Structures are given as C-alpha cells and as structure tokens.
Amino acid sequence: MSPKQVVAAADPYFPNNGDHRFHAHRYELTLDYRPGPNRLAGTARINAIAGVGAPLREFALDLADFRIGRVLVDGRAAHYTHRAGKLRIKPAKAPAAGAAFTVDVHWSGNPKPVRSPWGGLGWEELTDGALVASQPVGAPSWYPCNDRPSDKASYQISVTTPSAYSVVTGGRLLTRTTRASATTWVYDQPAPTASYLVGLSIGVYRPVPLTEPHGGGVPQTGYVPARLQPQFEHDFARQPQMMALFEELFGPYPFAEYTVVVADEELDVPVEAQGLATFGTNHVDGARRFERLVAHELAHQWFGNSVTISGWQHIWLNEGLAKYAEWLWSERSGGPSAHHKAEAAYRQVTAFPQDLRIGDPGRRLLFDDRVYERGGLTVHALRVALGDEAFFRMLRGWATLNRHSVVTTADFVAHVARSTDRPVGDLLTAWLDRPELPPFPVRTPPPPPAAPLRAAPATRFWLRRPSGS
Ligand SMILES: [Zn+2]
C-alpha cells in the first residue's frame, strides 16, 4: 500500500463508496451465473491489509442488495450488517494494525444495475447474456469490493455458466472446464486493477484473433456475435497498428493481453475495463466509422487503467488523454492532424456554456462532453506550448513512471513542470481550473527563414575573399 492510499480521504464525489481503513490486494471470485433467470451466486475470498494506526475492529465492503450467506474474517464467522449497499463487518478478532487478513463472503440473488445520473451501472442483463460496465460506482452491483479507484488489486475470476455461453473478462484464461451442461472459465489478472475496471461479458460469442498466435506484442482477441464477424474483422483490422503506435508514444502496453467484446446489444458508448473493452453492435458497421472509439478504448489501457485516478474529480486525466489519443491515431494513420481535430473540438466547445472546470467538474458533470473535448484540447495546448519533442517525452514519461499506480491532477501538473523549462502553470490553470475557455493554442510559427542577406554584388564577395583560401 502506498502512503498515498493510506492518507487519502473519502472520494469527494462518492463519499459512501470505498473504505480507507484497509487495502484489498487480491480478490478471488467464484461465480455461478444462470442467464435465463439472471441468477448469480458467488463466493469471494478477499486478501487485505489493515490500515496502520489501530486494530481493524470494523470495516465495510460495498455490495448491492443480495442475500448474504456468510461472512468470515480470517476463517472465523464475523458479525455483519448489510443495508444501503454497505456490508459492515465486525471481525471476531480484529486484525492488528498493518496486518494481512482474509475476508470470505457468500452472496446470491438477481444482480441489477446500480442507479445513477448516467443510467444503470455495473451488472446489466442482456437479451441473451450479461455484461458489466461499472464506471464509476457500479462494481458493487455484482461483487463485494472496496469500491474506490485507488484501491487496486489483482483478481482471479471463475465463472460457471451454461456451456453455450462464452465468458470473457480481462486477464489470462487459465482453464476452461466443461462438466455436464455447464462450463467453468477461470481468468487471472495479476496487474493491479481498480474495482470499477473489472469487466465481464457473458454471451454467445465467437473468438476472433486480431494478432498472429506467435506474432510480436500482446495477444489481441475479439469476442463477437458470429453474424458480425466480417464487419468486425474490417473495423478492428488496424487495432494492431494502433497498439504499435501507442506503444511507441506511451510506452509498453501495460497488461499481458487485450480483448475486445462486441456485446450482442446496442450500447450508448463503448466501455473500458482492465485489459478489455466492450463495444455494442451499433459500433460495428464494416466501414470503420467508429474507429476513433477503437483508439479511445485502447488508449484507456494506459490512461485510466494502468495510470488510475485516485478520485473521480481527476476524470479529465482519463478522458482528455484518451480523447487526444484518438487525434494522434488520426494524425498518424493518414487522417486529419491532431491540430485539425483540436480546431474542430474547439468550435464544438465554444458552443457550450463556459461554466465547467474540467479539473474538478462536479459529480453530475463527470462525463460531460466538455470533460472529453476540452480535456483533449488541454493536452493539445500543452503539445503546442512544449513542442513535439518535449511533449511526447512528457507523455511517455507520465504513462511509464506511473505505470500500475494512482495519480491526481496535481501529480500531472508537477510532472509537466519537471518535463520542460517553459512556464506552463498558468496555461494548465486556465484550461483546468477556470470555466472560461482559453484562446485556441496558437502554434509558434516556425522561425522565419533567416533574412536574406542584402544582395551584394558577387564580385564584392569575391573581392573580400581572404586571399589564399
Ligand atoms: Zn473514455
């Protein structure tokens, strides 16, 4: 646990989520899911560490409205209450300050999304299957967790479901075992993962490899409704090139594999999860009309998933950088330049009211378009101010120095300041902390060609030539 995690206060936007009195570092989830009746039964083994200071007499997990079978701490039955999404636990013997301990929870019921201003979050039952899209606070809709983005943990997830369905989650598929009519899929994600980024899809999908089995780079695979395979193969054909570009610009891909699911349902927007992204059928048209979203979701593997915000007020760090990655992909793949994309975004943002500070947009406007577009513009303004060489060094440094870590906007501002001799504090304050839109970043014109020397008669030059040379 980093000191940052110990001292962090409750999330200002979601103070009821997460518990800072302990750190969960590994979840082992064993789930049984029946798609027809939408019935989920699970057991969780959570490996955790008590905070420093005092014995952990009480702590809480976030978990929606399920029937609780039992709760054990270090193998002993614990006293608990469960209401309003909080499973409050009093261990029979309090773990000592800083000590490792385990929690086991058994739960079952009919999972349903957590209601929010942005619609349902978390577990979503589909016409034939289910998916999970938790950002920002939907994770407790399906498993008990310390639901704050700064509390990253490794995961092993085992899901048993009827054999006709595929189970896809971030991480490596360890085993797939069929008994009678049910199949158990076991995945492992060793990289630190925020609870909102634990993704899951259950559906009738066909695996489509996007990379050669033994080619370079991490394996990339799609899970797609069979009827959409031809369109998918066209629309995602350039994802391996995108991966290569982003590795060049942002540093090595942070995880061991990358999987995309096209859920058999229309979705408002694609959603990122650790090592995984989920698209809707409406994002696949066989004409690459949504390729910018393919780039956006892939970029989140660096910005959001590996480098994770410690609290939701820093959301622009995820969305501004993923937006800018869209523009970089455009620029580097033969489309309009990032500058051109920024000009279009600026026109778009100009039409909105200038009453949002994207560095702390408030809970209600967390996913406002301005966070994305003005976020991308902020990154572009930095590029213009720093120049390409320093800008790309700064960007790659941000992703690599903070790999698998937790960050704030203040960390970013400090990182930028360390990356350049130019004063950029006022520029970042104007873009992030003030509502009014700063002027569009003007590229310093390249230094004019050296003024032509006053035309002198050639003869004069020759006359002045030192003798002997
Ligand atoms: Zn995004």
Automatic annotation (TrEMBL):
Q: Which organism is it from?
A: Kitasatospora cinereorecta
EC number(s) recorded for this UniProt protein: 3.4.11.2
- Transmembrane stretches, start-end: none
Give one GO term, molecular function aspect. aminopeptidase activity
Q: Does the keyword Protease apply?
A: yes
Limits of the Aminopeptidase N-like N-terminal domain: 134-197
Q: Top-level EC class, please?
A: hydrolase
Any one Pfam family here would be: Peptidase_M1_N
Check the UniProt entry and state the signal peptide residues, or none.
none
Q: Does the keyword Zinc apply?
A: yes
Q: Which residues form the Peptidase M1 membrane alanine aminopeptidase domain?
A: 240-431
**Primary residence:** cytoplasm
Q: Could you tell me the superkingdom of the organism this chain comes from?
A: Bacteria
The record's section on InterPro entries has: Aminopeptidase_N-like_N (IPR045357), Aminopeptidase_N-like_N_sf (IPR042097), M1_LTA4H (IPR034015), Peptidase_M1 (IPR001930), Peptidase_M1_dom (IPR014782), Peptidase_M4/M1_CTD_sf (IPR027268)
Family classification: Belongs to the peptidase M1 family.
Q: Where in the cell is it found?
A: Cytoplasm
Question: What keywords sit in the KW lines?
Answer: Aminopeptidase, Cytoplasm, Hydrolase, Metal-binding, Metalloprotease, Protease, Zinc
Q: Which reaction does it catalyse?
A: Release of an N-terminal amino acid, Xaa-|-Yaa- from a peptide, amide or arylamide. Xaa is preferably Ala, but may be most amino acids including Pro (slow action). When a terminal hydrophobic residue is followed by a prolyl residue, the two may be released as an intact Xaa-Pro dipeptide
Name it. Aminopeptidase N
Cofactor needs: Zn(2+)
